[in-house]
Amino acid sequence: MKALIVNQLNAPPIWAEMPDPRPNEAEVIINIKAAALNHRDLFITKGQYAGIQTPCILGSDGAGEWNGTQVILYPALAWGDNPPYQSKEFRVLGMPENGTFAEQISIPKSNIFPMPEHLNWEQAAALPLAGLTAWRTLFSRCQLKKGEKVLITGIGGGVALTALQFAIAAGAEVFVTSSTSAKIEHATKLGAKGGANYRESDWDKRLKQEAGGFDVIIDSAGGDGFALFPSLCNPGARVGFYGGTQGKVNGLSLQPLFWKQISLLGSTMGSPQEFQTMLDFVQQHEIVPVVDSVYPMSAGAKAFEKMSLGEQFGKIVLKQS
Length: 321
Description:
By secondary structure, the chain is of the alpha/beta class. It folds into two domains: 2-127 and 289-319, Alpha-Beta Complex (Quinone Oxidoreductase, Chain A, domain 1); 132-266, Rossmann fold. Helix content is 28%, strand content 27%. The strands form four sheets. Strands 3, 5, 6, 9, 10, 17 and 18 form a seven-stranded mixed beta sheet that branches. Helix 3 (128-141) packs across helix 4 and helix 3 packs across helix 9 (272-285). The longest helix has 14 residues, at 128-141. The relative contact order is 0.16.
């Protein structure tokens, strides 16, 4: 089969021949129709990830066919039997095991789920990792309720956009932040009530004046901007975070955290049971993931180049030609 291969770090992946997958007794072979990029894939090509092995086939997100059935793939392995957190053996699909950027993948049968009927291949491929991460952060960890006010930072990425769509479908009032006014405008077209450019001074004060405080904040960046969140929180608020691309938080004051009874809730991916619940929610509300662009899988290097620019609004998808 052919696959998008990372042979060396700090170099674009190449479309080349790889051995056909050989499933064990618990695995099945999926003919991949579409797959989607995540920042994890880009970080691996740059050597910014633990335990990198080359050559490898990246890709956590995927949708395809199995025995004539349209399926979507749970994007991780070995969550374990404890719902509150993952096992020590937990790992994300696509390195060290081969991932979805290939014509075929061998994967445990327990990882395949029926694809939501209203989605096409590209939309389905855009859902798994972003949908699972957004679902667990919003609902399992932050216990979002109808009518609450939500702030989602860094709108434009797959998880943030999916969290926006989920929160709106759940009856929340959602605001966003971004580094560009264009992305904020796109988000309002999806149903956001408003937003703020975090590159502008006093963005937090203006946003609080507009929104009046938040019950839930969803963040993936961390960094010094995280220290502003307590002032934006209503009493009893929950701050859910699933990443830390901006590094450690300087200047975070504990006083408003304990006085306002604010909860800081870290979240990573989610269990297969949460994945099924997320898919049911997507099917019920006919949620369609936002796709920024689609590339032939054989031209995957161009997709990686686009992701490195950080200008996308939605998922970048690879499709079999």
